[in-house]
Known about the structure:
binds magnesium ion; Gln_synth_cat_dom; Four Helix Bundle (Hemerythrin (Met), subunit A); GS_Type-3; Ubiquitin-like (UB roll); Gln_synth_gly_rich_site; glutamine synthetase activity
Amino acid sequence: MSTLRFKALETLPFKDFRKDNSVEIPTKLSELFCENVFSENTMREYLTKEAFQSIMDAIKKGTKIQRLIADQVAVAMKDWAMSKGVTHYTHWFQPLTGTTAEKHDSFFTPIEGGRAIERFSGNLLIQQEPDASSFPNGGIRNTFEARGYTAWDPTSPAFIMGTTLCIPSIFISYTGETLDYKAPLLRALNAVDEAATNVMQYFDKNVTKVTPTLGWEQEYFLVDSALYQSRPDLVLTGKTLLGHSPAKGQQLDDHYFGSIPTRVMNFMKELEIECMKLGIPVTTRHNEVAPNQFELAPMFEEVNVAVDHNSLLMDVMARIAHRHHFHILFHEKPFAGVNGSGKHNNWSLATDTGENLLSPGKNPKKNLQFLTFFVNAIKAVHEYADLLRASIASASNDHRLGANEAPPAIISVFIGSQLFRVLEELEKVTEGKLSPDEKTDLKLNVVGKIPEILLDNTDRNRTSPFAFTGNKFEIRAVGSSANCAESMTVMNTIAAKQLNDFKIEVDALIETGLKKDEAIFNVLREYIKQCKNIMFEGDGYSDDWAVEAEKRGLNNWKTTPEALKQEMNQKFVDLYEELGIFNHREVEARNEIKLEKYSTVIDIEARVLSDIARNHIIPSALKYQNRLIENVKGLKEIFGDEEFKTLAKEQMSLITNISQNVSTIKVGVEDLLKARDAAKAVNESQTQAEDYCNKVKPLFDIIRDASDDLEMMVDDELWPMTKYREMLFTR
Ligand code: ADP
Ligand code: MG
């Protein structure tokens, strides 16, 4: 008897404690908002006017905080935190492992005379030194100083988790190389702020700062923790490596937006309470398409804070799930045959005068402003599509992209047919000076029509990786397990570069004697011509699109190794260096880390699959086969040679079938282990990742298919692996 599976099933779901974890939400959730955040409001209360102003300047203008002020802030933070029962503090950062990191230190400090006090100083607030050598650094450690330090990011508020004060920080080597997700993101945000603010001088000289905004939508699966523990593949790789799809999956579409199961609802309620306290403005919850799949979305926020909030949320979700005896799966494709999970990143630009630059305005001037940012965003994606593709590449996201549920790996832009027609009109703008008639026509009939168009624009396309949705672009191909910072760093970097180029081109035309508007129309016209090939309104899932995209010269990097290879393109390295986001060494190091991660993930999957196939699947299949053999022998004994042949026909064919599948698995595992050994021995990361992708991974399917066949033959009582129907429908 395969005990783990049945023991896990016995704990389900009939045990009362699993259902009784009921949670009540206070009617006024708003009263909990930011309870555990050193928010602007709290700072006003705890800081001197001077210190408060200094932090606000750091947030709004990026000015440095003086050491003396930092001391004041540290003491205020400590006092506030201690009033809430906090004993420890930590620099909270996001190393390239993909999770968050923290090392707790106590406020407790012994002083002379056997006494002790609670202490926290500006020095400790500003900088700490975790050991950098244990975090991924892509070889930076070998060429540069090994030590790294974390530095306080005052633009993201400190918060309390449990009894620890968490201070959002960047992580950097002593030689200045960034070792985390946040540091380059902050650089990219500064770059786009500067570029967009410069362009805004054409339209509104009052604008002094442009802040990119992000609203993410997080999808996830919940699985009962006992069932999760019974699946070694889920525990070790975050996904099931085998398992026959259940008779009922998502065919009936009865899960999406359906009523939320009670136990899940309790989890969600507790999560929402926690999010409120942490200042994460979650507003939306619903069931997703696949059974046991759900989604959560907040109000959008400034990108840096939104990224921190997503990382923090993933951490909080895992903890709260445990309290409700669930395990949360952020993997992009935990179960074959049902939809996977993504993390849509809605992106826009906001000014310090309160405008959304991707939202059209009330007069023609505002609409030209809208068009400027709209077309430049498309142009940025057109020029740097490969970089955007690389930013979402991972072993787990490969299962999703192009799998008829997520956007394909081809980067295209969807803007809706009506806006597309506007761009087509703009393509016809005369070169050079415009006649007064043309200007009026543009104002009234082209640009002027935009607000109406958007008002009733219900044009939606779920298959596009980069879609305009009324007042923001939605990057849809981001993986559910990813840190949003990666795609956001790329998006803001390429937008910055594009806006810088735009400014140079428009200024050059103004120099030749064109009016500002004329110059802008002229540049936009050329951009639209250049970008047309990336705009696609049709079905991104169709095979025709792949063919059509190839004709249009768009790339289709289907796998992570292919996508990551593009990152080292000189054009991209130059871009990063020009804008001061990464130097050449950092680009290489990050690329190396991602390739290594890819190879490691496939390597672990290969080992886990081999182990399960050999030690769990084959023995169970043989056990059942032996039963059948006994049965056949018995029949022969009772009925004699002739009659038994008819009576035992089905059993005999099952016995043969089992043997065939067992043999396929056995040979498959041997081949897999050989291919894995060979790939592991490769020294160069790019080649190694390609070998894992092209030589190791394809063998997974052979083993899986045979195992899933066996699952359908073998007596349920003997089957060792918890089944899909058990994991997906237990709530
Ligand atoms: P949907 O696109 O599913 O119809 P919404 O339009 O409400 O839903 O937006 C989805 C997500 O987009 C939400 O997370 C929301 O916060 C975010 N969003 C809305 N406006 C912006 C914006 N200006 N910048 C960034 N994100 C935004
Ligand atoms: Mg969406």
